[in-house]
């Protein structure tokens, strides 16, 4: 296979390509003049130079957000809804440009990037609708002459940190509810994919958000010290982080000195279980979707595929057939189904997981090779059988296009295997037995269960994990709760 042609289409609106950070309503460069490079994962070529901000500039952004909070918290929920709705319209109006940016900096196929923009926009629409519904309660008092009500107020300045795998949707999933609640924001853009975040900020200005309400910090080598500032600065009242479990644990420790409100959306290691009584074709189609989307780089990706004895061989063979039909290539090639991994470290981890499984007795049905002829970060989508629980794919999130298939005999055995994990984000299973469906859905130690479907992400459904996948819920009617505090007000003398 030749190197991908990979022609980046020109943006219709060139002002959405922004090589600057965004503080207090201004796009700015670093005072030091330092920059870092953003590269195209399909070619490793530099595509942008972005300011390497410092702790001092992060403090300026935090101060700007604190100043803006004084008036933004007093805006009417319907005024915030109008701004969010305008932002939603602008995101959709600029969908093609935003998708182009996602493919450029993240590598995912343009069709997936377009879907991501729609998904990202949905959070703005959803939380525009939620903003006027920040209801409180009336509560019977234990004191005869008293009455109690509760109100929900914005928590304050929020620090948001997001990963590169969904450069737009991870941002709007946090900003939508924060803004709906009346909070102001300091967001640290992912170093690999800041362009999408900055383009969204530009559209937010056009939607009417006042200066200082949204601030975007950009950094690569300074990430850890900026993260520490966001965690320890007492002006930030809430930290919402999506990323790896290890970084989540570090940030939680750092936040303890100021006892911030926290939401952590961390790593997963999703079990995908297929029982003998399942519709095998539907299970194969779902496994292809939820294992290989974004080349396996989503937190809800199936990581451990458990198939019951009676249908194991037919499932594995059909899964391998499906994977053989993939077209791996540059994200702008219209027939590409799967793009590159984000960088060489990701390729290295995938390779290690495959080699570890093979050394312990697994067998490759398809794939298992680094596709260097396509570009530095391409890895062939892979199906491996003969998996056992001593292999790294069982215990670690691979975050790559490797489907490891395990064989099991009984329901109890597979539930124990599925729960044998320190993390618990998503879990999938296929069965036609209604009793089993309830039992297994209740037994899986995860925050989200998908039954007879490979789709678990939906703006209407609460998104989040248990165990070391973190806590807090995004999207859904619960999303704004993460950005509000409940205040009780007791009225006496009645
Ligand atoms: P990561 O933890 O390395 O980085 C995530 C973000 O945190 C990036 O913006 C990064 O710049 C920043 N960061 C890294 N170290 C930091 C520090 N010391 N202080 C402050 N910020 C810091 O994760 P990643 O490799 O970019 O993303 C992949 C991980 O994210 C996977 O584990 C995946 O499962 C997880 N993820 C979880 C969800 C979810 O909703 N649960 C969604 C997407 C990704």
TrEMBL record:
Residues 27-489 form the Aldehyde dehydrogenase domain. It comes from the Eukaryota. Pathway: Amino-acid degradation; 4-aminobutanoate degradation. Its EC number is 1.2.1.16. Pfam families: Aldedh. PROSITE patterns: ALDEHYDE_DEHYDR_CYS, ALDEHYDE_DEHYDR_GLU. The keyword Oxidoreductase applies. It is an enzyme of class 1 (oxidoreductase). NCBIfam families: SSADH. This is Succinate-semialdehyde dehydrogenase. It comes from Discina gigas. The gene is UGA2.
């Amino acid at each position: 296979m030749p190197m991908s042609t990979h022609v980046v289409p020109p943006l219709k609106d060139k002002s959405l390509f922004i090589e600057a950070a965004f503080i207090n309503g201004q796009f700015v460069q670093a005072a030091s003049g330092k920059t870092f490079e953003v590269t195209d994962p399909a070619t490793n070529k530099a595509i942008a130079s972005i300011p390497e901000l410092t702790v001092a500039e992060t403090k300026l952004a935090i101060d700007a957000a604190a100043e803006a909070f004084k008036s933004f918290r007093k805006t009417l929920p319907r005024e915030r809804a109008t701004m969010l709705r305008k932002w939603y319209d602008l995101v959709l109006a600029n969908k093609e440009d935003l998708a182009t940016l996602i493919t450029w900096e993240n590598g995912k196929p343009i069709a997936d990037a377009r879907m991501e923009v729609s998904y990202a926009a949905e959070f703005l629409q959803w939380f525009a609708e939620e903003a006027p519904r920040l209801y409180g309660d009336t509560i019977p008092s234990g004191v005869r002459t008293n009455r109690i009500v509760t109100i929900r107020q914005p928590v304050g300045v929020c620090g948001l940190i997001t990963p590169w795998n969904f450069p737009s949707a991870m941002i709007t999933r946090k900003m939508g509810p924060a803004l709906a609640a009346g909070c102001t924001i300091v967001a640290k853009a992912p170093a690999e994919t800041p362009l999408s975040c900055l383009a969204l900020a530009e559209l937010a200005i056009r939607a009417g958000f006042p200066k200082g309400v949204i601030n975007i910090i950009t950094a690569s080598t300074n990430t850890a010290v900026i993260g520490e500032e966001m965690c320890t600065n007492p002006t930030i009242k809430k930290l919402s982080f999506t990323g790896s479990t290890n970084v989540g644990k570090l940030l939680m420790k750092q936040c303890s000195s100021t006892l911030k409100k926290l939401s952590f959306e961390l790593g997963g290691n999703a079990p995908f279980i297929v029982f003998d009584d399942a519709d095998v074709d539907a299970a194969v189609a779902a496994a292809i979707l939820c294992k290989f989307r974004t080349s396996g780089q989503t937190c809800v990706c199936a990581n451990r595929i458990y198939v019951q004895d009676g249908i194991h061989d037919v499932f594995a063979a059909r899964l391998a057939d499906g994977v053989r039909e993939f077209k791996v290539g540059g994200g702008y090639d219209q027939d590409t189904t799967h793009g590159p991994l984000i960088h060489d470290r990701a390729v290295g981890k995938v390779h290690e997981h495959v080699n570890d499984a093979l050394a312990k007795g697994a067998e490759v049905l398809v794939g298992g090779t680094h596709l260097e002829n396509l570009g530095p970060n391409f890895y062939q989508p892979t199906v491996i059988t003969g998996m056992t629980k001593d292999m790294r794919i069982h215990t670690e999130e691979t975050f790559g296009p490797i489907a490891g298939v395990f064989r099991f005999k009984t329901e109890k055995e597979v539930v124990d295997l599925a729960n044998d994990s320190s993390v618990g984000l998503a879990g999938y299973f296929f069965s036609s037995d209604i009793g089993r469906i309830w039992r297994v859905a209740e037994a899986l130690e995860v925050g989200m269960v998908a039954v007879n479907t490979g789709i678990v992400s939906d703006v209407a459904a609460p998104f989040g994990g248990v165990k070391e996948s973190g806590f807090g819920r995004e999207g859904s009617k619960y999303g704004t709760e993460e950005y509000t505090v409940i205040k009780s007000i007791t009225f006496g003398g009645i």
